[in-house]
Amino acid sequence: xxxxxxxxxxxxxxxxxxxxxxxxxxxxxxxxxxxxxxxxxxxxxxxxxxxxxxxxxxxxxxxxxxxxxxxxxxxxxxxxxxxxxxxxxxxxxxxxxxxxxxxxxxxxxxxxxxxxxxxxxxxxxxxxxxxxxxxxxxxxxxxxxxxxxxxxxxxxxxxxxxxxxxxxxxxxxxxxxxxxxxxxxxxxxxxxxxxxxxxxxxxxxxxxxxxxxxxxxxxxxxxxxxxxxxxxxxxxxxxxxxxxxxxxxxxxxxxxxxxxxxxxxxxxxxxxxxxxxxxxxxxxxxxxxxxxxxxxxxxxxxxxxxxxxxxxxxxxxxxxxxxxxxxxxxxxxxxxxxxxxxxxxxxxxxxx
Length: 352
Prior knowledge:
With 352 residues, the protein is α/β, with parallel strands linked by helices. The protein contains 14 helices and seven strands. Helix 3 (76-83) packs across helix 14. Strand 6 (291-295), helix 13 and strand 7 form a beta-alpha-beta unit.
């Protein structure tokens, strides 16, 4: 745990002392919606190529188990849950573990390949945002049945909600889909996605959410896969793709500011993933990394999912802690630790 997360954790305890007296966690539950950045295994249970439930994924996770996380180990949200006092993680909703007492600590509805735009999920055969919301409604009913209506209401109101979409909308839909990029400019598509985001926040607010953390887009143009596919004439990060991500992030930030004004009982914050990841990529040695332009798995330039990142991938590194990226899209556990340290500091306002 980094120094910033330790400091933030101390503040968490000060701000949430009453909650801490009643529970070992600083929030009663974590509810997650999103894509592969936060999917903990839902795609294991659907028909899609976007899966990570096989080696070498998970090789540095508990018991060297490939759970469906797109990482060699823990996601940034796993590390955040650790810091908040959770000893087990909210289960993927489609798994058999999402039942009984396990529901009391939340649920994860995320699906690799999903996006704000439901058409993004359709292209990837992932669980769409609309379907994730339907599953959340089911979860509410199951939680009430397990805990009773009053306790379930308390859990849902006090829970931390994590919303993490957008990367797939651009990389797996907009940039490669002429039916979208010939109709919308990047700015227009960002506005379209932001409108969906606003509706979604209103939906979950209406269903009881009061603490919401929304991740920004990371520097998409710096992902190894993006540099391979879209950066033919550039050395390093693809500047136009990073610029598009920053435009989208500004729109999300503006929307969140409006929510803060309109809904005074809603605690909502943007978790900026762009700057901390960009800083690591630009100066990896300053943060203890050796390689930032390719992932650990295989050649690290295009590998992700079972298509290319698998047990037979040639060239997979032996020490992922030296790499910013695990595969050509997703950060390593070591990079996720840096991201988590930053997210915890940014999320202090959601606790207490």
